[in-house]
Amino acid sequence: MNRREYVSLFAAASVGALAGCPGSSEQSPSEPSPSETTTPAGTTTPSAEERTYETVVDLREEGADPTGEEAIDSLLAKHQGDDTKLVLPKGRYRVERQVFADLDTFALVGDGATLVPTHRGPGSLFLFRRVSNINIEGLQIDQTANGILGSFRVRCVGGENLIRNVTLDGRIDRPERIHGFTLFSEGADTSLTLEGIDMTDGARNGTAVYVFPQDDFSDPSRKPGELLFRNCRMHNWGGEGIYGSPHAGPISVIGGTYKNNAIQQVRVGGGNDNRALVKDVEVVVDDPPGYAAGNMRGIWLEEGNDCLVDSCTVRIRNMGGGGSDGGIVVGPQFGQAEITNTTIQTDVEAPAINIAGPATEFVPSSMPSLDQLPETWTVSCSNVQIHGASERGAAIHLYGREDCLFENISVDQSSGSRHGLLTSEALSTDIQGGNWVTAGYPMLFGPTESSSESKELVCFEDLSSVRSTEFDGSSLETTQSSDESARACIPMSSAPVRETSSRIPYIAITGTDEDTLYGHSVLANWDGSEVTQQQ
Predict the structure, then answer these.
(1) Residue 479: CB partners within 8 Å, gap ≥ 6?
(2) Distance of alpha carbon 109 from alpha carbon 186, whole angstroms
(3) What is the pTM assigned to this prediction?
(4) Which one of 20, 399, 410, 504 has the minimum C-beta count within 10 Å?
(5) 3-state DSSP helix/strand/coil percent for the chain, to nearest 5?
(6) Residue 437 CA: distances (Å) to CA of 25, 369, 390, 503, 523
(7) What does the pLDDT look like over 252-266, one tens digit per residue?
């Protein structure tokens, strides 16, 4: 993605038993009442029904044509204003393009209303500039009539803002790069919520939601605002589902489905000062359209300091000729993360969880939501179920991070040569309980350049449920952990040493019993392929 293209466009427009894993798709998140939405902080964004307005205008009574023959733009321009609610009753309404600027406490509400965009070019149908306390609710955008995207560009600079129950109806088959929603939230007390948005028809070349970086059009003295996505549906976009990593403020994605988008389904950041949240989300890659065969990541964490991924369901089943970095990806520009109570199905070669090594250089132009690189890079995974028919690669990749935790992980991938956990340049990995059953090696621990004698390569607690269906090994020598917790550890002195540039040595774990770890040494490629046992 070329972020600068977006900037110019916007400027032109303005080792034991599993402890339980409740993260299944059958679970339903608790729902707010129909007239309000709850933010992660526990506050509510009022709907247009709950707010009071000095002026309420029924646009049909003012002459809006409900047959879609005549555009209603002049009426929208005439009646918009502060403390005003515009209502569109049932009907079809033609809209060319409309700008709403410098408004406070404004609502545009449909009651069975369908809007038919007829403007030309990639510009937005609705552009909201410098608005506060806005409500956009109950609108269906019929994109099938003219093949024109009914897109929104929204810049909120204050108050509580809600876009709810809006449907973009009809797939857009246009070559230019387009976005369903382009969002900007400025001000520490500003919040913007998208709830119940339906963008399942997608577009050949576009992003469902793009969030603008704070640096491009903001007052540098103001902090970024809050963004919340609740129970939205974004499918079949030739670019991204949610591209939220440029946002430096609080960002949460709660509930909803994100499916068959080409580059990723959900991408969050949050900057240096916030903990992003992805909760109760369903992610699916199973039948991508031909135009969406890209790097089809599931949940992607990038440009942020901290994130909780909780009670999500991720299914990567068919990439349509494309590839994928993984079901859940912790990118090199993202710091600490917690992944918990989540189920991941991978029927393809992509890893279920892919944890990249930390970035070593801060590049502001490509990390606009960060002021500096994160200080903490630890990732913890707990109560995660991984299954599926994948025959190659590894279920979990871990590169270049210390002190990562895998607690009560269940890996059941017994087809082909699929491995469980594969690490490289990772120190002090902590594995507590879980079930690791694979056709390949349940665990492969690669070399590290560290010479620290105060750290272990990896430590285990409860070694009863680790098993390869294909390989046997000899008992491995372990030591007691340096923290005197009685965990069995592979010390740094036993870590494999890389001697060639083409093949990587690993300690391959084949199984365990109550007090013994079994395995042997192997050589393999960086992704665990082409394994050969060393004598």
Answers:
(1) 456, 488, 489, 490, 491
(2) 24
(3) 0.90
(4) 20
(5) 5, 45, 45
(6) 23, 40, 13, 25, 21
(7) 999 999 999 999 999
